[in-house]
Design brief:
With about 280 residues, this protein is of the alpha/beta class. Helices cover about 30% and strands about 25% of the residues. The protein has one domain: Nucleoside phosphorylase domain (Rossmann fold). It contains seven helices and nine strands, in the order αββββαββααβαβαβα. The structure holds 1-O-phosphono-alpha-D-ribofuranose and hypoxanthine.
């Protein structure tokens, strides 16, 4: 599906040109209610979008503004374990970029792999480890796609330093714990064994989840500026088996919403007062 077809459909409903796209992870969808003058479009009405099936994911695109910055938020997302391909999962990013978004704030609920994390902490992503799809960043890639001009030119490091800085400033101002970290993406939908958590810690992961990387890779390919945020919804205990549950993940998300909101507002304030400057990568 061509993103332009989806963008044309959206344009028939709203002509708002968002500057910033926001993806709201498990339990974090409530932030969409903070959008001023919202125009809500259900995912399943948009050509090329699927139906969001994971619980805690509303399945809506919400256009409007926050801190006077035009935004579009995905309240919910698509995951590989729901049966979608990498390209399906990333398609909304392409569409949000086509309707105007040059920045992406992507959030998720994630398991805390680093021993220092507590439930509710926020991790500002500096990098990721992709265990989601083997060798290739896309599972629909014909060889020529991988050999496309420029294919190997984009640096793997994709997260924006100035947007990260704004996130840390928001945490300091609001008084909550916020750390830099590396996100490890699995295919899901199973949570990890203790041995897997230990392995992930040893290879340099701080948090683990089942999303985000396909969206970040798409946004990076499109030249978008990216802020990645994980909300620690459960912590890996190296000493005893603790069963993670999606209800616990959703509950932690709702509790941490106020922190995510503080970060999003700060980043948007900075974007509106002066376009955030990042050092060249
Ligand atoms: O990454 P988000 O969508 O926040 O969801 C996270 O929470 C779910 C597991 O509870 C998985 O889908 C995991 O990726
Ligand atoms: O512990 C976890 N593992 C993988 N994905 C997750 N999403 C939330 N918590 C977790």
């Amino acid at each position: 599906m061509n993103p332009q077809t989806a963008a044309d459909f959206i344009r028939s409903i709203t002509d708002l040109k968002p500057q910033v796209a926001i993806i709201l992870g498990s339990g974090l969808g409530g932030l969409a209610d903070k959008i001023d003058s919202p125009v809500i479009i259900a995912f399943d009405r948009i050509p090329g979008f699927g139906t969001s099936t994971a619980s805690g994911h509303r399945g809506q695109l919400v256009f409007g503004s926050i801190e006077s910055v035009p935004v579009v938020a995905m309240a919910g997302r698509f995951h590989r374990y729901e049966g979608w391909s990498n390209d399906d999962v990333a398609f909304p990013v392409d569409v949000m970029n086509t309707v105007g978004a040059s920045h992406l704030i992507v959030s998720n609920a994630a398991g805390g792999v680093s021993l220092k994390f507590r439930v509710g902490d926020i991790v500002v992503l500096q990098d990721h480890i992709n265990f989601m799809s083997g060798v290739f960043a896309s599972d629909q890639g014909a060889p020529e796609k991988f050999a496309a001009p420029g294919c190997f030119n984009r640096p793997a490091m994709t997260y924006d330093a100035a947007m990260s800085q704004a996130a840390f400033e928001a945490a300091i101002e609001s008084g909550f714990d916020c750390y830099p970290g590396t996100y490890l993406a699995t295919f899901g939908p199973t949570y990890e064994t203790r041995a897997e958590y230990r392995m992930m810690r040893r290879i340099g992961a701080d948090v683990v989840g089942m999303s985000t990387v396909p969206e970040v890779l798409a946004a990076s390919r499109l030249g978008m500026r990216i802020l990645g945020l994980s909300m620690v919804s459960n912590v890996a205990n190296p000493d005893k088996a603790v069963k993670a549950s999606h209800d616990e993940v959703l509950e932690a998300g709702r509790a941490a919403e106020v922190k995510m909101e503080a970060i999003v507002r700060k980043v948007l304030q900075q974007i509106s007062s002066s376009p955030l400057q990042s050092p060249p990568v």
